[in-house]
Each structure stands twice: as C-alpha cells, then as structure tokens.
Amino acid sequence: MTQQFNALSTTDEVLEGVDLTGKHVLVTGVSAGLGVETARALAAHGASVVGTVRDLDKGRRATAGIPGLELIEMDLASLRSVRRAADKLNAKGDKFDLVIANAGVMAIPTKTLTEDGFETQFGTNHLGHFVFVNRVASLFKPGARLVNLSSAGHRYSDVNLEDPNFERTEYSDFGAYGRSKTANILFAVEFDRRHEARGVRATAVHPGGIQTELARHMAPDSLTRMVKRINEDNQKSGLPPFAFKTIPQGAATSVWAGVVAPAEDVGARYCEDCHVAEIIDGGADLRGGVRPYALDGNRAKALWAKSEEMVDERF
C-alpha cells in the first residue's frame, strides 16, 4: 500500500482520489452513526448504495442528504424480516461489489431474546447477518468484498458453541457482546475461505470507540465505567488516555478495507485504524490487536455449522 492511514484518518481522507462510479454497494444499518457516514462517503465518490434499516421513516430522515440511496426494511433480530429483505434483493438481481455488515447492538444489560429465541446480541449481530449475507451471496460480483463490523470487544469472550444462548452459563452484557463480535470475525474467516476461489474476499474491522446509537441499550453508567477501566489500564502501560473517534474516523476503516486496501492483505483478517491488526494473545483490555481464537479456521468452520443448525438453513 502506497499511502498509510491511521486512527485519525477519516472516510474522506481514505477515499481521496478514489472513483467508485459504477460500483454497487450494500450497507446494513444506515439509519444512524457509522452506517449513515459509510453510505454518504461511498455515494459521494460515485457508488450507488443500497442500505438496510429497521425503520424506513427513520432511515429516510437520516439519509435525506445522500443522493440515490435505496432503502430496504430489515430487522436483524427477526429472521423472517431478514429473509424477506434478502428475497427482495435476489428478485431484483443487482450485483454488488461490496457488502458492509454494519448494523448491530451492544452490551444489553439483561438477557433478552430475538423474535426467533436467540440471545439478542448473538442473534442480531451474528445470526441475522449470517443468514442475510449468505442468502445474497450469489449477488456478490467476482472480486467483491464482505466487510463485517466487529469490535475490540471481541477480546471479552470467544464464542460458546455449546451454550450460545446463555441457557446454562451466566449472562453478562459485555460477555455476550464479546461472543457476538468474535462471531463476526469468524464468519468473515469462513466466508473468505468458501468464496476466495471466485475472487470474493471477506474481512472484519474494528471501527474504534465512537459515541453512536450502538450503545443505546447499555446501562447508564456502563460506558463511563468502561472508559475508566480502559484509562486505568492505559495508565499502567504508559499509554495516553482513551479518546473517542469521530464518526468519520470510525467509518474510515470500513471503507479502507472495502475499497482501498489490497484484497489479499485484508482477506480473512481483522483490521483496525486503517491497517491489518496484529495477533495478540492476552486479556480483555482495549489496546489494539486481535485475539488468536477469533481467526482460528477450525473455530470458524465450527461456528458456521452451529449457526446453520440454529437458523435451520444450510449455505
């Protein structure tokens, strides 16, 4: 790569000089935050963008300034809604150069279930996207990419394939979030393996800490406690205090991995701050890097099989 970007790079900086005319992009969750900015930046550089939203009225208001954006209703917490949205796209038949699985929920204080009976974070962040992306996989052009939004939160926990719905293990907000974000990475690893032969690559990204609607379910003091813990760890390690990214900075890694970075560099990898992350074993602190279990190919295959079993559909 000739130009290096970092944690402070924005979408417009990453895409400077990039012409996406003729490119067709699908982004989930474009009614707020990173999804809106991702769609805006890609459209501003010539791409035609389709965005999914849970609430069409909210989505229209949030994206009113994005020319040519097409919206499709989809609630990731309902496989009925997910399958309906995928069916609409398949019926239309337009092919995609890039799919960004952006939507999600974070750190729900108490255990709740999706419409289909899955723990909400795993069901929404992983299983909803797992079904949706696989159902539209035939619409990926040769050379297309899948970008799954994961998180540094994957370091809180690996997936639990024996008890994905916390039926026998104690539920915790960030423990469940960590499982779902690890699943996002593992899904990208296995999707990449299955589709690389036809030129389709998949990657996962951590956008960084950003204040968006993602945290809407969190307990009021949860974010404050999390930042305090991060800063205590940073101080011990001689690192500067934690600082939130702006939304354009947060969305930069998604568009960098989707259209700027060489596909062979990011395929089956985890990216952060507009670069491929280093594999680092250790605790659940938020100082960078990806845990080895999140890139484990055998683990990715096992999660795929478990996910198929849970949604009762084979891909």
Can you give keywords for this protein?
315 residues, alpha/beta, Rossmann fold, eight-stranded mixed beta sheet, 10 helices, 8 strands, 39% helix
Structure description:
The protein is α/β, with parallel strands linked by helices and 315 residues long. It has one domain: 3-Layer(aba) Sandwich (Rossmann fold). The protein is 39% helix and 13% strand. The protein has ten helices and eight strands. An eight-stranded mixed beta sheet has the order 3-2-1-4-5-6-7-8, with helices on both faces. The longest helix is centred in the middle third of the chain and has 23 residues. The model has no long low-confidence stretch (mean pLDDT 92).
How are the strands ordered across the major sheet?
3-2-1-4-5-6-7-8
Number of strands: 8
Number of helical segments with 4 or more residues: 10
- CATH class wording: Alpha Beta
Structural class: alpha/beta
- Which regions have little confidence, pLDDT < 50, spanning 5+ residues? none
| Rg for CA atoms | 18 Å
- Overall shape: globular
CATH 2nd-level architecture: 3-Layer(aba) Sandwich
What does the main sheet amount to? 8 strands, mixed
Q: Remind me, CATH topology? A: Rossmann fold
Number of domains: 1
Strand and helix order: HEHEHEHEHEHEHHHEEH
Q: Percent of residues in beta strands?
A: 5-15%
Helix content: 25-40%
Q: What is the mean predicted local confidence, pLDDT?
A: 92
End-to-end distance, in Å?
34 Å
Q: CATH superfamily assignment?
A: NAD(P)-binding Rossmann-like Domain
What would a concise description of this structure say?
The protein is of the alpha/beta class and 315 residues long. It has a single domain (11-218, 246-310), classed as Rossmann fold (3-Layer(aba) Sandwich), CATH 3.40.50.720.
